[in-house]
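A.,

Following up on our hallway conversation. Structure tokens first:
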């Protein structure tokens, strides 16, 4: 029973739900990027290289049994670069809009701290006045 309660608490945490949503959206985004590369980028590369083949059909045939499909690899590299760039932009946006304001809010001192600093400054200024008066008295006596 205790294990089930702990599991329920674990599942109901906001972070786990957010992570699950991120994984689902990430899978859909990966499919979108693959389609973008296959249906738009590959034909453009074929157009500029003067070939009717898509990028994924490029291969190096050393023998009938040994075929290197480097086009598929280039296709995967392009998919990775697009995905990594979009994730970079997303993290940069989130850091700028969500993380920075939280850090700035954390840096502002609380009201209690401000009050304590004012009290400290007042005490220091009173001690400075007494020290100044004592210094003047010592100066008059030494003359």
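Then the amino acids I'd put at each of the 143 positions:
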């Amino acid at each position: 029973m205790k294990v089930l309660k702990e599991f329920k608490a674990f599942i109901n945490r906001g972070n786990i739900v957010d992570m699950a949503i991120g994984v689902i959206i990430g899978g859909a985004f990966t499919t979108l990027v693959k389609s973008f590369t296959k249906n738009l980028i590959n034909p453009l590369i074929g157009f500029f290289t003067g070939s009717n083949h898509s990028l994924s059909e490029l291969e190096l045939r050393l023998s009938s049994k040994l075929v290197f499909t480097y086009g598929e690899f280039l296709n995967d590299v392009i998919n990775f670069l697009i995905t990594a760039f979009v994730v970079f932009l997303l993290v940069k946006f989130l850091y700028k809009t969500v993380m920075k304001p939280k850090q700035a809010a954390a840096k502002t001192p609380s009201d209690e701290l401000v009050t304590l600093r004012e009290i400290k400054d007042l005490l220091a200024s009173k001690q400075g006045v007494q020290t100044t008066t004592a210094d003047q008295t010592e100066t008059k006596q030494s003359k």
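The CA atoms of residues 42 and 102 lie 43 Å apart. Curious whether your intuition agrees with the design.

B.
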